[in-house]
Design goal:
Helix 1 packs across helix 5 and helix 4 packs parallel to helix 7. It is built from nine helices and no strands. The chain is globular and about 40 Å long.
């Protein structure tokens, strides 16, 4: 796909959110345990930036906040979102910039987005995951719940695919084998959300 065509599709992504329909695949018990542990403390743990020094953390947060300002004008909401993304991304051995790219393409940073397939929230998680790996009362529109589920599921797919981002992203979106979605996420991840400084 030509660069200009890809850029055009990305420009449309926030309005058309390319959420797909994740397919259930049996989760290893270690994945289930990880998700249960994360969900158990979602009301206790306060998401915090984990950087080697505070200045690196401040620089990352300020840079990402400036990029997100048009989509989320309220600074407190932006800060909370970015700290939460950073916390759960690192907890699942994911690049926070990748998670930002996934959210941009999946939901356009719309907390209450719902896809035509029924995927919900920022990370467009399919509701079938809730009774399978969580509790019925879990709300996928809740910021932390969406990020916990989304990051654990994405890590699961990366592990299945031995670190192949193209295939893992295809699984996450329910479009395995089709290039559009992985290409869009990769372009957002390595383009708009790229960051030269330390991310942890």
């Amino acid at each position: 796909m030509r660069d200009w065509a890809l850029a055009f599709l990305i420009a449309l992504a926030p309005a058309a959110a390319l959420a797909g329909a994740q397919q259930y695949e049996p989760l290893a018990e270690t994945v289930r345990a990880s998700l249960r542990a994360a969900l158990a403390d979602q009301d206790k743990a306060v998401p915090a930036l984990e950087f080697r020094n505070m200045e690196d953390g401040r620089q990352w947060l300020n840079t990402m906040s400036a990029r997100l300002m048009k989509r989320i004008p309220d600074r407190a909401n932006r800060t909370d979102l970015l700290k939460t993304i950073h916390y759960y991304a690192l907890r699942n051995r994911l690049d926070p910039q990748l998670v930002l790219g996934v959210i941009e393409v999946e939901s356009g940073f719309r907390k209450y987005a719902v896809s035509s397939a029924g995927a919900r929230g920022l990370m467009q998680v399919m509701p079938f995951w809730v009774p399978l790996i969580g509790r019925q009362e879990h709300n996928l529109f809740r910021l932390r719940t969406s990020l916990i589920y989304g990051c654990v599921i994405l890590r699961h797919y990366l592990d299945i695919e031995n670190g192949d981002y193209y295939r893992a992203l295809g699984r996450y979106n329910g479009s395995l084998g089709k290039p559009e979605y992985p290409n869009l996420v990769h372009t957002a991840w390595r383009g708009r959300w790229a960051y030269a400084g330390p991310t942890s």
